[in-house]
Amino acid sequence: MPEVSLLTNPVVSNGSPMDKSSVFAGSWLALGLVLAWALVAPQAEARAFFVFGDSLVDSGNNDYLFTTARADSPPYGIDYPTGRPTGRFSNGLNIPDILSEQIGSEPTLPYLSPELTGERLLVGANFASAGIGILNDTGIQFLNIIRIWKQLEYFRQYQQRVSGLIGVEQTQRLVNQALVLITLGGNDFVNNYYLVPYSARSRQFSLPDYVRYLISEYRKVLIRLFELGARRVLVTATGPLGCVPAELALRSRTGECAIELQRAAGLFNPQLFQMLDGLNNEIGSQVFIAANAFGMHMDFISNPQAYGFVTSKVACCGQGPYNGLGLCTVASSLCPNRNLYAFWDAFHPSERANRIIVQRILTGSTEYMYPMNLSTIMDLDSRI
Question: Is 55 a catalytic residue?
Answer without folding.
Answer: yes
